């Protein structure tokens, strides 16, 4: 059954449009299950009904005509319950409904399973039999597995507009990922094709067919020469049988094979990279389905050759176009900061990536620039999105493809409201961050980018609560040297002096890799990251500490923060290295007073070691993002579980309240530098809990300042007491929204559904 399942999925994936995919699917399933009927009903959200889209066994004229409401008939019951229904005598079921157009009165047995994608019901898959038959567990398991596999295919079809049935107006599709940078945008997709990824090449119509064909032939000839040279180099080191593989490659690249077929596809209206990808995918899917082991192995060869040719084609193909739409939504498998820089800032409206995370370099840059961004959108059908109109919601991690006029109008209003609010709040940004009853709540900023506007920020903040030193490391092609780092740090320290600047030592690992220092791990967030890496590489940490101390000469505003601390031994080791750096610089004639040192409280173990940590450091800084992630055992960058990640979870809020209380007892200043601090409702809670300062990305400052200036400290403390009594994130969010609405501050929060 597993082999049958694999082949059905391959054939469905290989179909050029949804109609062909559905036809293949129902025929293959009927044959595999040896049953009389297989039908597929698609849920149309526009009319809130299930539409018969394809069948083998029922009357074909019923396709596109028979519709059922959710809960109507047996098919509607499967959709309503979102669980399988297996009946030996379907007509006797109280929910059975007969449709004359289908001719299904002849069938007794019924097995239906829902097709669900990211908690969204897309349709129902049904098999029927004329004789009374209870489908066995293997049949049911097969159909459930098939439905789960087909969910992604159908979601792609919805997004790419390949739903062609007249019964399905609109065809709007929604994809969800990880909210990486807040904001909303309506625009046109520009797909960034990664190098040599056959599955991510966008469809484009060629402007010069002959030029595309010439490019193709040149790329193929380059690959032929590479393979010939490789064969010659290895001729004396491998057997004649292995050497024959190079000849097979040459034959595949010959005019009569790959070149001719791709050229035909170009003449049909596809540019060279897209034509190559189409042809290679088709050959690979065919070879992977055949019974012959030798031919199945050749699928990998064809794929490899395709990638080689594509790499040469892409060498002269700009990864982003020369001209961008007025409102460009840049979409790609992964988007680099370099690619980001190729788009004119005034035309860049949003970013969407299939990989990456909310803490990736490009996400950090996007937040600093105020560009709505969603990452981890794993099910996005990249090749078919180029030029599509979309709505991007960076607050909730959503992308709507081919949005309805109603949705565009709604988001247009929300975008206009956000712009108007930003303009209004701008007028009070130079006013103090102080409650109506006189409580001062210092606001600090998270930085790490060369273009952070220090001059305009300086008079509005109390300092830099988090300078991410890893960002310059990410941009470089090697570990920056001491002098190079010292110049970067000096710029930051001078720009904000005399305000304090908290510099976090190199925090890589997890989802922040350096291109020249990759870390491959099964569980990166539980692995080698933060202080664990730099203590294992003291030569890297020593250079960084010396550079920081050099940069702080004569300024006295440097503070050092140690990330990902798990136990006091790590702090002791880091402090010994700091003392050594001070001693070494002193021997070189550079006198450096020891700066204030703090630890990041982000590993839950530190909650129970505060007394010991307080004996060693000068301040605490809570990394609420990681603390939330570790307390809830949720990878916040995994879109499949991202909905479980919520910094307003009662356990997280209780932990935060305890940290504030314990820090007061220990007389140690404590700040928060995670996303909770940049949320107006979260900031009010943190202020009420007693945190000494809040640090956030610059775009979050106006809304947080506005909330603090309108809510008294007593009201914030009462809000904390009320909130800590609640026992679910939904209840907490609802209560916060209710309270801010009473205070006429709901407009400061992200838009709600």
Automatic annotation (TrEMBL):
<keyword id="KW-0598">Phosphotransferase system</keyword>
<keyword id="KW-0762">Sugar transport</keyword>
<dbReference type="InterPro" id="IPR029016">
    <property type="entry name" value="GAF-like_dom_sf"/>
</dbReference>
<keyword id="KW-0808">Transferase</keyword>
<dbReference type="InterPro" id="IPR015813">
    <property type="entry name" value="Pyrv/PenolPyrv_kinase-like_dom"/>
</dbReference>
<dbReference type="InterPro" id="IPR000121">
    <property type="entry name" value="PEP_util_C"/>
</dbReference>
<keyword id="KW-0418">Kinase</keyword>
<dbReference type="Pfam" id="PF05524">
    <property type="entry name" value="PEP-utilisers_N"/>
</dbReference>
<dbReference type="Pfam" id="PF02896">
    <property type="entry name" value="PEP-utilizers_C"/>
</dbReference>
<dbReference type="Pfam" id="PF01590">
    <property type="entry name" value="GAF"/>
</dbReference>
<dbReference type="Pfam" id="PF00391">
    <property type="entry name" value="PEP-utilizers"/>
</dbReference>
<dbReference type="InterPro" id="IPR003018">
    <property type="entry name" value="GAF"/>
</dbReference>
<keyword id="KW-0963">Cytoplasm</keyword>
<dbReference type="InterPro" id="IPR023151">
    <property type="entry name" value="PEP_util_CS"/>
</dbReference>
<dbReference type="InterPro" id="IPR040442">
    <property type="entry name" value="Pyrv_kinase-like_dom_sf"/>
</dbReference>
<protein>
    <recommendedName>
        <fullName>phosphoenolpyruvate--protein phosphotransferase</fullName>
        <ecNumber>2.7.3.9</ecNumber>
    </recommendedName>
</protein>
<dbReference type="InterPro" id="IPR008731">
    <property type="entry name" value="PTS_EIN"/>
</dbReference>
<dbReference type="InterPro" id="IPR036618">
    <property type="entry name" value="PtsI_HPr-bd_sf"/>
</dbReference>
<keyword id="KW-0479">Metal-binding</keyword>
<dbReference type="InterPro" id="IPR050499">
    <property type="entry name" value="PEP-utilizing_PTS_enzyme"/>
</dbReference>
<keyword id="KW-0813">Transport</keyword>
<keyword id="KW-0460">Magnesium</keyword>
<feature type="domain" description="GAF">
    <location>
        <begin position="17"/>
        <end position="164"/>
    </location>
</feature>
<dbReference type="InterPro" id="IPR036637">
    <property type="entry name" value="Phosphohistidine_dom_sf"/>
</dbReference>
<dbReference type="GO" id="GO:0008965">
    <property type="term" value="F:phosphoenolpyruvate-protein phosphotransferase activity"/>
</dbReference>
<comment type="similarity">
    <text>Belongs to the PEP-utilizing enzyme family.</text>
</comment>
<dbReference type="InterPro" id="IPR008279">
    <property type="entry name" value="PEP-util_enz_mobile_dom"/>
</dbReference>
<dbReference type="InterPro" id="IPR006318">
    <property type="entry name" value="PTS_EI-like"/>
</dbReference>
């Amino acid at each position: 059954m597993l082999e049958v399942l694999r082949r059905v999925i391959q054939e469905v994936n290989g179909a050029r449009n949804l109609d062909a995919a559905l036809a293949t699917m129902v025929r293959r399933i009927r044959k595999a299950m040896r049953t009389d009927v297989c039908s597929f009903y698609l849920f149309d959200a526009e009319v809130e009904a299930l539409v018969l889209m394809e069948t083998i066994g029922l009357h074909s004229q019923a396709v596109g005509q028979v519709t059922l409401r959710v809960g109507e008939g047996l098919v509607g019951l499967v959709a309503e319950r979102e669980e399988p229904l297996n009946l030996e005598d379907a007509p006797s079921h109280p929910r059975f409904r007969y449709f004359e157009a289908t001719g299904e009165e002849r069938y007794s047995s019924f097995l239906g399973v829902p097709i669900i994608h990211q908690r969204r019901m897309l349709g129902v898959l049904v098999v029927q039999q004329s004789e009374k038959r209870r489908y066995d567990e293997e049949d049911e398991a097969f159909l459930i597995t098939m439905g789960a596999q087909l969910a992604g295919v159908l979601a792609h079809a919805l997004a790419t507009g390949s739903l062609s049935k007249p019964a399905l107006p609109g065809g709007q599709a929604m994809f969800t990922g990880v909210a990486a940078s807040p904001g909303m945008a309506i625009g046109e997709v520009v797909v960034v094709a990664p190098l040599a990824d056959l599955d991510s090449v966008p469809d484009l119509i060629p402007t010069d067919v002959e030029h595309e064909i010439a490019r193709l032939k040149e790329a193929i000839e380059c690959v032929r020469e590479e393979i010939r040279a490789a064969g010659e180099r290895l001729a004396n080191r491998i057997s004649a049988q292995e050497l024959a593989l190079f000849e097979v490659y040459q034959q595949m690249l010959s005019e009569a094979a790959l070149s001719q077929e791709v050229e035909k596809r170009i003449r049909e209206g596809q540019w060279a990279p897209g034509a190559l990808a189409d042809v290679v995918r088709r050959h690979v899917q065919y070879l992977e389905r055949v019974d012959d082991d030798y031919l199945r192995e050749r699928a990998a060869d064809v794929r490899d050759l395709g990638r080689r040719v594509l790499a040469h084609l892409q060498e002269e193909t700009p990864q982003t176009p020369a001209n961008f739409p007025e409102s460009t939504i840049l979409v790609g498998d992964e988007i680099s900061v370099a690619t980001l820089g190729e788009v004119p800032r005034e035309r860049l409206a949003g970013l969407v990536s299939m990989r990456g995370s909310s803490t990736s370099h490009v996400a950090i840059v996007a937040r600093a620039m105020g560009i709505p961004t969603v990452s981890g959108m794993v099910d996005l059908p990249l090749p078919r999105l180029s030029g599509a109109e979309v709505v991007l919601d960076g607050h909730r991690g959503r992308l709507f493809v081919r949005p309805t006029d109603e949705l565009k109008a709604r988001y247009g209003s929300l975008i206009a409201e956000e712009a108007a609010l930003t303009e209004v709040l701008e007028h009070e940004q130079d006013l103090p961050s102080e409650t109506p009853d006189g409580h001062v709540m210092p606001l600090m900023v998270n930085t790490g980018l060369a273009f952070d506007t220090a001059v305009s920020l300086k008079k509005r903040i109390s300092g830099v609560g988090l300078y991410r030193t890893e960002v310059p490391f990410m941009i470089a092609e090697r570990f920056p040297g001491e002098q190079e780092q010292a110049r970067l740090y000096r710029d930051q320290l001078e720009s904000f002096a005399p305000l304090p600047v908290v510099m976090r030592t190199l925090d890589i690992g997890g989802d922040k890799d350096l291109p020249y220092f990759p870390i491959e791990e099964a569980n990166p967030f539980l692995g080698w990251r933060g202080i664990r890496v730099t203590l294992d590489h003291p030569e890297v940490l020593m250079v960084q500490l010396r550079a920081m101390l050099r940069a702080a000469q004569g300024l006295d505003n440097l503070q050092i923060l140690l990330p990902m601390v798990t136990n006091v031994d790590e702090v002791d080791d880091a402090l010994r290295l700091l003392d050594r750096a001070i001693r070494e610089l002193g021997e070189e004639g550079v006198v450096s007073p020891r700066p204030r040192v703090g630890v990041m409280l982000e590993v839950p173990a530190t909650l129970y070691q505060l007394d010991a940590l307080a004996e060693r450091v000068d301040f605490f800084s809570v990394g609420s993002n990681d603390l939330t992630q570790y307390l809830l055992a949720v990878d916040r960058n995994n879109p499949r579980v991202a909905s479980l990640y919520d910094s307003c979870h009662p356990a997280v809020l209780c932990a935060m309240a305890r940290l504030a209380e314990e820090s007061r007892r220990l007389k140690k200043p404590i700040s928060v530098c995670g996303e909770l601090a940049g949320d107006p409702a979260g900031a009010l809670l943190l202020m009420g809990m007693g945190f000494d300062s809040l640090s956030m990305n610059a775009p979050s400052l106006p809304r947080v300042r506005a909330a603090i200036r309108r809510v008294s400290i007593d009201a914030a403390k009462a809000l904390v007491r009320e909130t800590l009594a609640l026992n679910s994130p939904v209840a907490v969010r609802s209560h916060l929204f209710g309270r801010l609405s009473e205070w006429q501050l709901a407009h400061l929060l992200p838009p709600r559904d």
